Amino acid sequence: MMIHWEGVMPAVTTKFTSNDELDLVTFEKNINAQMEAGVHGIILGGTLGEASTLVQEEKEILIKKTLLITDGKIPVIINIAEQSTKQAIAVAKHAESVGANGLMILPPMRYKATDFETVTYFAEIAKNTSLPIMIYNNPIDYKIDVTLEMLEDLIKYDNIQAVKESTRDITNVIRIKNRFGERLKVFTGVDTLGLESLVIGADGWVAGLVCAYPAETVAIYKLVKAGKIEDALNIYRWFMPLLELDISPQLVQNIKLAEVATGIGTENVRAPRLPLQGLERDRVLNIINTAMKNRPSLPDYKNL
């Protein structure tokens, strides 16, 4: 499947039972809700997916299950976050062999690679797969900045096609578009900059709160792209307290609580993560409950 790098692509959560096993029933319910809302792709195995806690067998089950649910209607993209180039290449090859449609790749984990090492890491993966690739640039969390100069070196590989831009410097969207035009598609990866990034030219949104609120997220995207900024802004203002739950070390717990509220998830996380406790739990639930009481009616965004 050819990937059109545009639109809303949720970084989906992994669903667990109370016995710490994969909950494929709830997982399917959530993926179906995403598709019904009109998302443009599914991203598996990111931070929200608690990928670092999953064993290889579980990752493979989730890939195959997602491909079965989506049935070729939207692309399924696998996140790669590995410590070694060798293992990253192995993950890329495996993803391709089981039918994944694309890759989202982080820089090397647990080692602050130089610019040259980082470019070489991405390049070696690109050379060993035919799958299209989105580079994930998040120096805030992962301490490596993929600069414009590094991207200049990487675009010689045709399958490097997009960037998930999470520097928090929104003008970087414009810098990338000015430098590379349509050669590199740009996705915002910061929920609290979603609308702004789309307005100034981002092609899409790799979103977090979409896991609980897929229709609202896709509606904002569609309205912005249709030039209906004020309509999009009305939804976005309501959404902002929820979106701020994404920029927290406990984003997984926060978003899973929101999924409970909308009926498309459970609160179960995998240790060392634990469900929220005490005053912090009360604070997050208050944000979610307030949002649910004031949830906006959406326009017919699918037909824009």
UniProtKB/TrEMBL annotation:
InterPro entries: Aldolase_TIM (IPR013785), DapA-like (IPR002220)
GO molecular function: 4-hydroxy-tetrahydrodipicolinate synthase activity; 5-dehydro-4-deoxyglucarate dehydratase activity; N-acetylneuraminate lyase activity
The keyword Lyase appears for this protein: yes
Source species taxonomy: Bacteria, Pseudomonadati, Bacteroidota, Flavobacteriia, Flavobacteriales
CDD domains per record: DHDPS-like
EC category: lyase
Family recorded in the similarity comment: Belongs to the DapA family.
Keywords attached to this entry: Lyase
Superkingdom of origin organism: Bacteria
Protein name: Dihydrodipicolinate synthase family protein
Protein EC: 4.1.3.3, 4.2.1.41, 4.3.3.7
Annotated Pfam families: DHDPS
